[in-house]
Amino acid sequence: MNEPTIRDKNYSFAKKCEYFWMYYKWHAIGGAVLLLIVCSVIVSIATAKEKALSIMIFDTTVVDDTSLIEDYEEFARIDTKKYEVVCQMGGSTEDDQSYTSAMYNAKLMALVNAGDLDILVTELKSFNQEADAGFFMDLRQIFSDEELSNMPDKVVAADGRVLGIRAEKLPAFFNREMFDGTKGASQVAVGIIVNSKNLDNAKRFVEFLNQ
């Protein structure tokens, strides 16, 4: 014979609550957890900002200065209520330890393959290695000859492609002492990733660095 349900019992309200908790508490807990997860996902989707630009800066002495991105957002007139600029700073490609180099390469490859990186700033030797691997677009595709002529030392491939510009003395970096050669690199270049999804904002970032 089946156990009588809570509706079949002539219990007081308190007794019914006790009965419910005894037999259905895991159902209630599971339902509450599921509801919280659903609500969390809905809130995350509703409040998520579209990515305006993704930047990775390696070999820098500065890892927590948000003013660089804030100044860029103002320069590029980014609507920060709707869009966000993601900037990852830190790490060293000059470290002799193999695991550091492996982590750098793994993270970089993952972001590039996912189309989730627009700008890379890194030590010149590493920059040239990534350039040889085809990571950077030819800046002549988005900048005029006149615009390029006003830029500082450029990283030019053997076939004439302009793959980046030297960055250590650009005001936005130099004034923040981001590449002073002590803990970070003294020779640095910046380039736009070949499959950038935010090309207009990437161009604006290079313009921002050169102002």
How is the secondary structure organized here?
Elements: H1 13-47, E1 50-57, H2 67-76, E2 83-89, H3 98-113, E3 119-123, H4 124-132, H5 145-149, E4 154-156, E5 162-166, H6 171-174, E6 188-192, H7 199-210
Parallel strand pairs: 1-2, 1-3
Antiparallel strand pairs: 3-6, 4-5, 5-6
Describe this structure in words.
By secondary structure, the chain is α/β, with parallel strands linked by helices. It has 2 domains: 6-46; 49-210, D-Maltodextrin-Binding Protein, domain 2, CATH 3.40.190. It has 7 helices and 6 strands, in the order H-E-H-E-H-E-H-H-E-E-H-E-H. The protein has helices at 13-47, 67-76, 98-113, 124-132, 145-149, 171-174, 199-210; strands spanning 50-57, 83-89, 119-123, 154-156, 162-166, 188-192. Strands 2-1-3-6-5-4 form a 6-stranded mixed sheet. Strand 4 and strand 5 form a beta hairpin. The longest helix has 35 residues, at 13-47. It starts with 12 loop residues before the first helix and ends with a helix. The model has no long low-confidence stretch (mean pLDDT 79).
In short:
This protein has helices spanning 13-47, 67-76, 98-113, 124-132, 145-149, 171-174, 199-210, and strands spanning 50-57, 83-89, 119-123, 154-156, 162-166, 188-192. With 211 residues, it is an alpha/beta fold.
